[in-house]
């Protein structure tokens, strides 16, 4: 019986297998359109669709004027998210994976040690930029915060780098009814800047007692792909997080995206005795 897969899928699957087996190594050029057309007796459109599938899966990246090349998909590290995580805008601790091809600048650990948090001097250099703007609450965000559509919010957009590599993008929303006229109006300015949600709200007498997270995946937009160093349409890990105070009132909600092929999420789950 013949292969029932569409030709574009067969091309993409064959290329993925070559990459997984190391026949096409990281940094190697994917066969050209002409070569793929000849090998598979396929049209331009079919070959282009196969390459788009490969890019969306994170296996390849296009370089303008040069061609399409095999991407490095080795995970760089883990974001540990737990109640013990550092209260910072990142809301996580970073753990570098050992043995990865892109392990940062001699920070490696011994073979077989898995991932671990190294000594303080071996942690990646984390930096971020943030921009805050007052906005009207869109319907989805208003529902998450339990406020009316159009209510004034402070929207802060973050871009994080770890050892100068793109790490994640995040957008946070806080009701201005809670923070207007206080020292925590702007998350990245004032005496409580860079403290994280819990620390900042504690400074104005609001005690955050819990948070919820929903983890999903979705394709990268063009702008996200540019910022995260991947291809448009490539699958991203998306985290939706909302913080609640002791009165079960939502006081902040955020959307975070990161490359699922480069960074893992890890959750510490404690059980009662």
UniProtKB/TrEMBL annotation:
Query: Per its UniProt record, what CDD domains does this chain match?
Result: WHTH_GntR
Q: What are the recorded GO MF terms, alphabetically? A: DNA binding; DNA-binding transcription factor activity
Q: Where is the composition biased (Basic and acidic residues)?
A: 100-116
Record bears the keyword Signal: no
Q: Where is the signal peptide?
A: none
InterPro entries for the chain: Bact_HTH_transcr_reg, Chorismate_lyase_/UTRA_dom_sf, Tscrpt_reg_HTH_GntR, UTRA, WH-like_DNA-bd_sf, WH_DNA-bd_sf
Which PROSITE patterns does the entry link to?
HTH_GNTR (PS50949)
Residue ranges occupied by any HTH gntR-type domain in the UniProt entry: 5-73
* GO BP annotations listed: negative regulation of DNA-templated transcription
Task: Give the superkingdom in one word.
Answer: Bacteria
Q: Which Pfam families match?
A: GntR (PF00392), UTRA (PF07702)
Q: Which UniProt keywords apply?
A: DNA-binding, Transcription, Transcription regulation
PANTHER family per UniProt:
GNTR-FAMILY TRANSCRIPTIONAL REGULATOR, MANNOSYL-D-GLYCERATE TRANSPORT/METABOLISM SYSTEM REPRESSOR MNGR-RELATED
Q: What is this protein called?
A: GntR-family regulator
Which organism's genome codes for this protein? Answer: Streptomyces xiamenensis
């Amino acid at each position: 019986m013949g292969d029932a897969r569409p030709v574009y899928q067969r091309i993409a699957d064959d290329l993925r297998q070559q990459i997984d087996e190391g026949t096409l190594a990281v940094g190697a050029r994917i066969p050209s359109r002409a070569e793929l057309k000849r090998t598979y007796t396929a049209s331009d459109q079919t070959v282009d669709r196969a390459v788009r599938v490969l890019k969306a899966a994170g296996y390849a990246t296009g370089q303008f004027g040069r061609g399409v090349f095999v991407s490095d998909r080795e995970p760089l590290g883990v974001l540990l998210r737990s109640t013990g995580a550092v209260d910072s805008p990142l809301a996580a601790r970073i753990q570098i994976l050992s043995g990865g091809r892109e392990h940062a600048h001699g920070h490696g650990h011994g073979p077989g040690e898995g991932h671990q948090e190294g000594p303080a001097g071996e942690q990646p250099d984390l930096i971020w930029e943030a921009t805050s703007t007052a906005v009207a609450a869109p319907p989805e965000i208003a529902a998450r915060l339990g406020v009316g559509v159009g209510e004034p919010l402070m929207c802060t957009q973050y871009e994080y780098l770890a050892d100068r590599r793109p790490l994640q993008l995040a957008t946070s929303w806080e009701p201005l009814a809670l923070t207007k006229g206080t020292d925590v109006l702007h998350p990245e300015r004032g005496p409580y800047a860079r403290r994280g949600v819990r620390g900042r709200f504690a400074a104005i007498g609001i005690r955050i007692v819990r948070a919820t997270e929903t983890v999903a995946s979705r394709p990268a937009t063009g702008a996200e792909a540019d910022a995260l160093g991947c291809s448009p349409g490539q699958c991203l890990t998306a985290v939706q997080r909302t913080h609640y105070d002791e009165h079960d009132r939502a006081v902040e909600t955020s959307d975070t995206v990161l490359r699922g092929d480069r960074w893992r999420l890890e959750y510490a789950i404690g059980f009662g005795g």
